[in-house]
Each structure stands twice: as structure tokens, then as C-alpha cells.
Design goal:
This protein is an alpha/beta fold and 339 residues long. 35% of the residues lie in helices and 14% in strands. The protein is globular and about 55 Å long.
Length: 339
Amino acid sequence: MPTTGPSRTAVEIASQPACWREAADTLPHHRAALPVRGERVAVVGCGTSWFVAQAYAQLRESGGHGETDAFAASEFPLGRDYDRILAITRSGTTTEVLDLLAKVRGTAVTGALTADPATPVMTAADAVAVLDFADEESVVQTRFATTALALLRAHLEAEDALPAGVRTVAQAAEDAERAVAEPLADAVTDAEQFTFLGTGWTYGLALEAGLKMREAAGAWTEAYPAMEYRHGPISITGPGRVAWVFGSVPAGLADDVARVGGTLVSDSDSDSGADSGAGPGSGADGSDPSTSAALDPLADLVRAQRLAVLLAEAQGQDPDRPRNLTRSVVLSVPAGEDA
């Protein structure tokens, strides 16, 4: 449908570099909700927040800050011992999250990250980090999710627990400015199918990219750990179809994508010897990966968000009002109970 200006979703996507910087700057105000070094932690969420939880869990544990698991709130293993349970909930009203926090009260310290201080999560958790500067009007979640992860990364950075090779939040924000501004390649905007891939913490980003494209544009997307790609998912790759890798490209994967006629998209510092593929300004064959320096994987997610909006608008859809979705899922009965 025609619009007189950018969608609200597009405006919120473009604001992410500033939000990430503010998250890092305000870290001292949020420490009470965040894990302490050595704690055994479970991070929970629903939808996008669950994928952020997965990315953070990998970052925290691989950085030596402590054992960390991630669960969909509805699938949390009650009875398993944790020192802290950290919930991520943009709205602060999601039924499954609130239900879980009530069930574990008194058994572990609980923390939460939210965008709205006037919601039930404020009393459901022991401590809450309010990122209201990253709240959104859009149904499709973009800047709150990435800002939550930026805050968690900034915390690891401050605790000297950022894994080797992971950039600082300041560097990621600089990369995000480029990701917001640079044009997307025709090979991406004209593609009919997308398989998102990641390794370690970037697998959570791959899952989120796939979800974002489905939510906003109804696109055909899948997501897998990068090394699983050749164990089946490669079967659907071909001309007009994209394999988009967040982070390093496993050795040989670029050749495999080329062999079946697909387009590899990657914008990372890869030490595997693979080409970086069709970056923001490169051609369909990825022949000039030097057109731009590598992006932080979280900044690369910004490109996928932009693509979701572009595809939605190209189909005449309103990215601010995606089909079948609401801003928060509030159930009429507690999660896990029969109606």
C-alpha cells in the first residue's frame, strides 16, 4: 500500500546504532538484573526474545562468564537448579514469561529486560533493566531485541568476558550505521528463498533473521547451524535462492553454494578461506567482497531487518501491521494450563 514516508518499522530499524550506544552508556544502571560472574544462568524469552537468549547464552559461556542455557519460556525445565533466571520480554506482559517467573520465585534470583516499566514484569522479577529508550510501536520487534543483546554484550565487555573475535558494542554500532545506509544487493532483494546460517552465538541471529522475514514479509525462510547446511538444507538452494551466513563462513561452504547455483551472502571476517559473498554493494556472484569492510554479525542482522521491510512493501503489505500477529501474546489462562 502506498505510504507518504518510511514505515514506523523502518524508522525504528534505523535508530539501532544510537540505541546500542545508549545501552552501553547506561549499563551501570542495569547491573542488578544481570548475571554475576560464575552464576549458573538460564535465559528465557518467547519468539525473538528466545533467539536473543540463545545468542547471549553462547556469548556468556564461551567468554568464561559462567554456564548459561537458553529456553523458550514455555519449555523451561522446572526443577533444574540455576542461580539466576533472566527473562527477556519487550512488552513485559507475555503470559509464558510471567507464568514462569511466578513458578520459580524463591528458587533462584530472577532478572528481566523489558521496554515498558508500567507492566507486570516489574514486580514479577527481583530486578528489572528497563530499556524504554528502545521501546517500539511496531508489532515486529527489531531495535528492542538488538538493544537487549547490545546491553548484554556491553556487560560481558565490562567484565572482561567478551569472547575472542567479538567486537565491542561501540564497534558494532559503527557497523550498524553502515548496515542502515548501504544499499542491499539485487541478488538479495530479488531472491525467492533464504536460508540463514550461523555458528555459535550467531546461530541465534540466523534464527531471528528467518523469523523477521516471515513476520514482516511472509517470506520463505529457514535457519540452521552453518555446519548443518550440507546435511539436507542445501537441497533447496539453487538459482534465485540465498544462503546468508552470519559470522565466519565454514571452509568449503561458499563452493558448495556456488556448485548448486545459489547466492552466498556473508559480510564477516572469515578465516576459513571462503569468499565473503554478496555483501551490501556487491554483485550477485559475490565477485567483489572488498566493496565494504566486514560487519559485526549483529549489524548484519540489521540488513536482514531492512530486507524484510523492503520485501513487505514490494508485495503491497504494511510492515507495521503484519498478518496474524500482535505486539504481545497474552493468553486467557496461564501458560501450560487447559482452558
